């Protein structure tokens, strides 16, 4: 395992390449201990291998093209390779620690052929699977830490056995749901442009970040957006957000201070100004 290093805010990080600079080739299974002592807010990640993130201290929020997930130390994640944004937050003692386990598609296919019968995957594919941490997983992670103390054990064969162990356990724990998710990992699929855009209409992501989730530069994203929606992305998103805000306020159950974050604005002042410019009256007069 390599020593951890900090991410540069909003630069695209290729992972696990970032942790493999001292290795001649990418292994089939790779383990990395990641620790930090300062919050990392919204890093751009190009995840080039499927990855377990066994969170042990702190909190993590991962935003994908069509969904997002938040976990603390009581949960871990299995994340599909691809582009995502993630935020990592320290606990009250100013520490963040997770153990990352990367695995190749080749070793995944070998596992599926050996242990999981082929079945039609009818579920909508999502880029993550949430795992509830328990005593077995804690013991498994402790065994990985013990491996780190004995470099002679860091062989492909030994790590392949550890990978098979945790996969078999999770198959037993979660049954067909987990098996179905594993099968979805070997299906190459590009997220549709419109689906990503429309799932993030009311998020507070910037255009640059939505473009990243679409695997596009900002300029390419804008051109594609105008071709698709016949409007500029900034204007289109604002119209959608303000129309929803007006509907929510007219229902009489919410105030502007309750909803501005929900519809994608970062502060109440900007929301109130945009609302008044569009409708001619302030949100509090709705």
TrEMBL record:
The keyword Lyase does not apply. Coiled coil: none annotated. Keywords: DNA-binding, Transcription, Transcription regulation. It holds the Pfam family HTH_18. It comes from the Bacteria. PROSITE patterns: HTH_ARAC_FAMILY_2. The keyword Glycosyltransferase does not apply. InterPro entries: ExsA-like_N, Homeodomain-like_sf, HTH_AraC. Residues 191-286 form the HTH araC/xylS-type domain. This is Helix-turn-helix domain-containing protein. It comes from Echinicola jeungdonensis.
